[in-house]
Amino acid sequence: MSIDDYGGGQTAQSDVLVVTTNDVPGHRVQQVIGEVFGLTVRSRHLGTQVGAGLKSMVGGELKGLTKTLVETRNQAMERLVEQARARGANAVLAFRFDVTEAAGAGAEVCAYGTAVVLTRA
């Protein structure tokens, strides 16, 4: 199955479709491989923490923290896709993120879902 077979939910670098749904229209699950996840923990930069503290007093978006969280989520998702590919999957269904504070020092981000092999219905 190629990237062109899906139409969405993938980047040009990925041969693994990642969707939040439990199925993909026009496809059937040929094989359920099982749970896959990508995990990363990132600490906040001291300058970002100070800036966020000051910004929280006046309100508004905490751009430094937003950037860090986006990078962290992307890394977790890349690790999930790597794990799915290594296990022979061409798709991950029921994809989700879980974000928690890690010991007050940063953010733990876990991307998880169910690795499957999809075929056209």
UniProtKB/TrEMBL annotation:
Classification via Gene3D superfamilies: Hypothetical protein apc22750. Chain B
Recorded superkingdom: Bacteria
Pfam families assigned to the protein according to its UniProt record, in alphabetical order: YbjQ_1
Entry similarity comment: Belongs to the UPF0145 family.
Name under which the protein is recorded: UPF0145 protein ATE80_05130
Originating organism: Streptomyces kanasensis
